Amino acid sequence: MTVNLLDFDAAGLTAFFAEQGEKPFRARQVLRWMHRFGQGDFDAMTDIAKSLREKLKMMAVVMPPAVVSDKLSDDGTRKFLFDVGGGNAIETVFIPEDDRGTLCVSTQAGCALDCSFCSTGKQGFNRNLTVAEIIGQLWQANRALGADPKGERIISNVVLMGMGEPLANFENTVTALRLMLDDNAYGLSRRRVTVSTSGLVPVMDRLGEECPVALAVSLHAPNDTLRDELVPINRKYPLGELMAACSRYLKKAPRDFVTFEYVMLDGINDSDTQAYELLELTRKVSCKFNLIPFNPFPGSPYLRSPTHRIRRFAEILMEGGVVTTTRKTRGDDIDAACGQLAGQVQDKTQRVKRRIIDLHEVRAR
Ligand code: SAH
Ligand code: SF4
């Protein structure tokens, strides 16, 4: 059976090498070739003994998901679409800013949690991504973006805010996180890797124990009645429990605040009263707010709050003493804005499916 080496973190690769009678430092060398230098061809790993390279060629591959399309937005945002087989496609977005380059990575094809304002949720759940598919997005994007003129990598931050709920694919997500943090792989600091969750309380505790990184929590409502409607997982883990989980997480976290994401929905969750209620709800948690203007998608039941409303909402939060930022909507022209991922995947997926059917037909002939 062929093994995909992108599925392993350092510990996994070392164990795999040990099974083949190879020393740990060999695993480290190969890890570095694959992730630090983006090398997928064993023959190019020149400091590895020829005999080992031949052995690897027989039994292993370095296989990231294939890039189906790569689109550049007017504002520099770049969106990659990957084929992950079985008619499923996932998206990854690179967002360049003055002081950093952020890659927004997907962890599932679709999502089971069905938040009412989310395009991925509306698509339903297809499957968890493998480690190779999660880390492969970074691998491919690094390759496509290259290094800057000083030889530094362009991706300085990773946010797991693409398609899917990372904590619902915990094992694979954590293995991929370990690679992001590993100095022999991507060497990112824990503070620059952010997991975004809709609030899977018990798994937040596990993340804090096993792999603490920066945390963003998708709040979107200041009380249980509204949140039950917008974020259905709230019925299982209501706000009281979620706030307590945030406080517990902060004891382990590399940053001393949680980022609360709050999508701005016109007339639904954007009133002055709701802003005050939000301050009250989060009073005991060290936090920042990130307001996300709602990004519509075909068939979505909401409208984006008007700019003056978002501004006033932010003002109230700031007057309440909490740092509040409003996310710039970027990549609009290529449907790469928050929550729009998968907006066209269904479409594309159909196309991929069609192509696969075409191929079958060709073969059948
Ligand atoms: N499942 C995780 C991470 C992926 S979603 C989570 O829910 O946190 C990343 C962010 O995009 C979340 O805050 C989510 O609420 C937000 N989002 C989803 N749909 C959106 C939309 N249509 N417009 C703006 N933000 C959206
Ligand atoms: Fe899933 Fe996050 Fe979308 Fe909710 S907002 S459906 S948790 S991807």
What does this structure look like?
There is one protein chain. With 365 residues, the chain is of the alpha/beta class. It has two domains: 3-61, Orthogonal Bundle (DNA polymerase, domain 1); 66-354, TIM Barrel. It has twelve helices and 14 strands. The chain has helices spanning 10-19, 24-36, 50-59, 119-123, 131-145, 170-181, 201-210, 224-230, 239-250, 272-281, 307-319, 345-364, and strands at residues 3-4, 60-61, 66-72, 78-83, 89-96, 101-104, 108-110, 125-128, 157-160, 193-197, 214-218, 258-264, 287-293, 324-326. It has a ten-stranded mixed β-sheet with strand order 3-4-5-6-9-10-11-12-13-14. Strands 1-2 form a two-stranded parallel sheet. A two-stranded antiparallel ribbon has the order 7-8. A hairpin with a 4-residue loop joins β5 (89-96) and β6. α1 packs across α2 and α7 runs parallel beside α9. The radius of gyration is 21 Å and the shape is elongated. The model is unreliable at 343-365 (pLDDT under 50). The structure holds S-adenosyl-L-homocysteine and iron/sulfur cluster. Iron/sulfur cluster binds next to α4.
